[in-house]
Every structure is written in C-alpha cells, then in structure tokens.
Design brief:
395 residues; alpha/beta; UDP-n-acetylglucosamine1-carboxyvinyl-transferase, Chain; four-stranded mixed sheet; 32% helix; globular
C-alpha cells in the first residue's frame, strides 16, 4: 500500500525475515525507493506503472507473489515473477483467470510460477474470484481495486467456499488506515471505493501466527509468556488461538498486551474447527499428541495448498514418531502419545518454516526430535530458535 501511495510512508515494526525482504527487493525493482534506518523503513511511492519489462524473484513468499501479481496488473509493461521450487508448485490460477478475463495477458505453463503478466487491467465495476484455495487472491484484487475501479466503486465477489476470512478483515482494516473505504456488503461481496492510498506513519503489530508457538509452549509446560506487541484490539484471525489454549486450560490476559499462563496439565479437546485460522492449525496438530485423548481438528481443506501439504506432511511426520493419526481431505485425528513413547526422528520440513516451528513444540517435550533444516524459519522468523531457547533457559 505504501508503494502505491504518493509520497513517503514511514513503517515501524517490519519483521526481519526473508518474506519481508523479498517483497522489499521486488518493490525496489518496480521503481520504489525504500530505505531502512534502524527500526524504521521509509517507502517513497508511487511505483513505476510504465512499459518497462521487469523481472521479480519472490523467493519463497507466497503472500508476496499474490500481491505482486495484483500489482503487475496495474503496469503497462511485462512483469516476470518467479521464485523457489516450493513456490513454483503453488497455484495462482484463480487470480490469473480474473486478470485474463479483464484485459491482462498472463503466460504460465501450469497456473503457477514462473509467470509473465502484462497489463493494465481493464476498469470494471465487479470482479469475481474463487475463494476456496486462498484468501491471498482476494487480497491482491482488493489492494489494486481503489486504483482500477470506476468512480462508482468496485464489487469483489467471492465464489466457492471462503477460507481464511479473517485475513480479508486484516486487509480491509489496513486499507482503512491508508484512507481507502472498503467493507463487506454481504458475506460474499466486498465493496471498494475509488480512492488513492494516503502516505504517513504506520506501525505494524506483532504476528499472531508466530505468537501461537509461544502460547502453545506456555500451555504445554505450565509456564507463562507475555506478548508485548499484540492484544485483543487486533484484527488478526490467528489471535483466536488464545481461545484454543483457554479451552486447553490456560489463562489468557488480553489488556494492552497478551499474557498466557499455562495450566499444571493441559486439558483435551475432542473436536475443533480451525477453518478461520488455518495457519494456526499446524500449531495445534503438533501439540495434539501431548493432549489427553484423541484430538480431531476440522476445517483444514486449505492446508493442502500451503508451502507444503500441511495436512498430510505433518501426518507423515507424526506417524514416523509413533503417533496414531488418521486424515480425510479436511480433517485430522491425532491420538495422545506419552513423550516417553515418541520415537527419535529427524523432521522433514518440506521447505516449510511452519513445520519446523510447530514441531519444535513436540520436540520440547520429547527431546527426541531434530530438524533437517533449522534455517527454514528464516522465511518469516529468523530469530525463532533464539527466542525458543530463551524460554527454555528461563524456566
């Protein structure tokens, strides 16, 4: 949004991670001046909408890829987007279909990367996008809608099942902070008014998904952790994970910051739907062997389309550790397994940062688990292992 605004936007709170750096590097190639001074990153917009051919490398960032595809639709020139092999395997076809139906040329052999997008997108009062695979497709269209819609505004209509709706609420909230009016018209339609993004200072709050790992550690170990940069005012859907750990017996204090106080022993959870927080589902999957009884988690249909198949890949790794697991296309059931019964195992992360971080929870109790590539966390949280060890040593 800062790259689309006229003038300087000062951002504080950007995490030091490969995903953020990939987006910054791509925006620089798109003609945006970005300077970092300590904790503040200054973005001088707007980007170049001209006819030059640009080559972008999104590395392993799926979110960056989808937003860059949307931004590419604003340009007159060709935008080539590529990335890591794990990113190339992820589909962008629903977003490509919308762009092709509205004036853009898209070249992609398989509906993924590498891809070449040539715009600009045609002005239209309504766009329809499939929401069953990823909310990021919708976010990409919302991001560019204020600049591409007619004076009367634009409707973004969502077909199919809608996964990860809270992420769209995050998008709408951030757009409002930048002076753009956008809101739900009904449960499948979003209205966006024609407008320009405003520059200015912006503070980026803590990552609710990353926070789930520390909430889980406090819950599993009867400890306590305070998250200083996120509280109940957040629009992040994964903050609902606080309600999950409360169901497991933890106490959560939410005023000004978030403090999680774990129970002497976690309770069981028989059946829980995680459709509104799919990224946090993997955290619960990795906790599940340490919870009493059988934990059944539902609403997981979108997990097949993440950095790895976050339903079948964790199931495979749990079975290798001696855990009884069963899956369907959108559910997983995990039986309780005593830490002493867990088998020694080297975790295959499948190039997925969240596999490493989630399974570190199980490793913290079994101490029989190693990770094939600890650096995979650099994608979103390069300091994860340092913070993880701080909690271990402070106990």
């Amino acid at each position: 949004m800062a790259a689309l605004a006229q003038g300087k936007t000062h951002l504080t709170g950007i995490p030091e991670c490969d995903d953020a750096q990939a987006m910054i590097d791509c925006l620089i190639k798109l003609g945006v001046d970005i300077q970092t001074d300590g904790a503040t990153t200054t973005v001088q917009g707007p980007m170049d909408f001209g006819e030059a051919t640009v080559h972008l490398n999104a590395r392993m960032s799926g979110a960056s890829t989808r937003l860059l595809i949307g931004i590419a639709a604003l340009r007159k020139g060709a935008t080539h987007i590529d990335g890591h092999s794990s990113l190339q395997a992820r589909s962008n076809q629903p977003l490509f279909d919308v762009l092709q139906n509205h004036g853009c040329t898209v070249e992609s052999a398989s509906g993924g990367l590498p891809a070449k997008i040539t715009g600009p997108i045609a002005i239209n009062s309504a766009l329809t996008i499939d929401g069953s695979l990823s909310s990021q497709y919708i976010t990409a269209l919302l991001l560019i809608a204020p600049l591409t819609c007619p004076d009367s505004g634009q409707l973004v209509k969502i077909s199919g099942d809608l996964v990860s709706k809270p992420y769209l609420d995050i998008t709408l909230n951030e757009m409002s902070k930048c002076g753009v009016t956008a809101h739900w018209q009904d449960d499948r339609t979003i209205f966006v008014a024609k407008n320009s993004y405003q520059n200015g200072p912006r503070t980026i709050e803590g990552d609710a998904t990353a926070a789930t790992y520390f909430s889980a550690l406090a819950t599993l170990h009867g400890g306590a952790v305070t998250l200083t940069n996120i509280d109940a005012t957040t629009h992040q859907g994964d903050y609902q994970f606080c309600e999950v750990v409360e169901a497991l017996g933890a106490k959560v204090e939410r005023q000004g910051s978030t403090r999680i106080i774990g129970p002497p022993k976690p309770l069981g959870i028989t059946n829980i739907d995680m459709v509104t927080m799919p990224d946090a589902a993997l955290t619960l999957i990795a906790m599940a062997p340490l919870l009493p009884g059988t934990t059944k988690i539902t609403g997981l249909q979108s997990l097949h389309h993440k950095e790895c198949d976050r339903l079948e890949c964790p199931a495979t790794e749990l079975r290798a550790m001696g855990v009884k697991v069963s899956t369907t296309t959108d559910t997983i059931s995990v039986e309780e397994t005593l830490p002493t019964q867990l088998q020694s195992h080297t975790l295959t992360t499948y190039h997925d940062h969240r596999m490493a971080m989630a399974f570190s929870l199980l490793g913290s109790r079994s101490e029989k688990l190693s990770v094939d590539d600890k650096t995979v966390v650099n994608k979103t949280y390069p300091h994860y292992w340092l913070d993880y060890d701080k909690l271990r040593t402070s106990k």
